Amino acid sequence: MIAHKHILGTFDESLAALRNNVLMMAGLTERSLERAMKGLVNRDDNISATAIADDEEIDQLEKQIDKDGVDILLRFQPVASDLRRVVAAMKLSSNLERMADMATTIARRARKLNQHPPLAEVELIRPMYDHAMSMFKDSVDAFAREDVDLARAVVPRDQKLDDLNRMASHKLVDRMAQDPDQLRGYLNLIFVGRCLERVGDHATNIAEDAVYAAAAEDIRHQTAAASI
Amino acid sequence: MENLVMATPERSVVEAVERMTEAPSTAEPIPACTFQVKNLSIWYGEKRAIDDVTLDIASNAVTAIIGPSGCGKSTFIRALNRMHELVPKTRVEGTVFLNGEDLYSSTVDPAIVRRRVGMVFQKSNPFPTMSIGENVVIGLRLNGVRDRKFLNERLEKSLRMAALWDEVKEDLHKPGTSLSGGQQQRLCIARALAVEPEVLLMDEPCSALDPIATAKIEELIYELKAKYTIVTVTHNMQQAGRVSDYTAFFYLGRLIEFGPTTKIFTNPTERQTEDYITGRFG
Fold first, then answer.
1. What is the reported pTM?
2. Which fold has domain A9-221?
3. Which residue is closest to A217 within chain B, CA to CA?
């Protein structure tokens, strides 16, 4: 829905600034995850270090978005779609910050892996990464375009990521038994897989918030609620 | 009632989210209604102020009427106790039922309607020549009540319900106009309650009050709905969101949207409602 402008121009400016910061934060988080994965696959400590350094800027953006959101609530007391957008933006920033933390963790694990001989099992991580990033990009895209259908479609995709992580973990545990000399390396890959699985969880949260912002519908925890 | 806690003007983000997620659907029927307004139209001379409004007003709940100036809010609530008839050249079509009785039936006395449906106005209007106590019981006196004990009991009860008793119990003989603006407004509410109406209409009751007095009136509205059906007109969106259970949005004399307040203020159905409450009108 294309919204008319508010009577108060400063309200429109504040909402636009909030949205721009969220999208910028999403862009930086995406770049940080890409760098973390590149550092892992290419065994490049420099790229891993860059991914870790990215986190600071993302943390500052999270604080800025929270501050801007509170300022808007205080100054303009938004209602209806405006209120939903502000609340969703603040929740998005929290999820993005945690995703960026995952990128940092992956980069740290990659640097540890680089101290030892390469492991072929790093290839188990790639399909998880591709799937998690696809969910992430679609969830942010759904938020930006207020595309409820796209956002809804992201949520069930998390199951596949969980399955991929479970399979990879089983294989890595098996390898730990077969090749105990590389136990630490396999353990680090398990942690990387766990981080990507968490990225999928956060992408799901973002998609749920996107549905709420656009359609005022709370689609969280529906399976659990239905089974009570 | 006397230990009223002041309303908190700003709700936290968490509370706001909770309210949004708990918002009931507009399709949810009103449990019981005090007023049933059907196809109501009101003209002042040639000008149609209300245009074919049909609306049920829930019992023991607060219904807020919102809309831009000139949209018919005040005319609508005045039609609920036939107060608009005091304006010359007024014409009404449609029906208003109060607890099943047709208010506009030729056999109904408007004075009795106004006793059953009390009203509080934007600007507090205590009778300037009367004391605080006399202001409260004047309605009963005009209805012929002379029993002093009964009048004193009703005086205290009404002032307690209006959360004013503790502040004025030593000063009942002082002029009503000696009170502060917020106290005067609560005195007017006590005056309206003294005749034990079925409904309380409020036409922008807080627009001339400071935030503390406003908070007291809002808290009072919340307390009073246990006993009364309340209809309030307000220009303050946040106030409507805080105090009301249902909200009706009027524009150009027409009812654009009506529903649970949580629904109207989080996800209104009509584009005009969304534009108005979010400040995009004009």
1. 0.80
2. Methane Monooxygenase Hydroxylase; Chain G, domain 1 (1.20.58)
3. B21
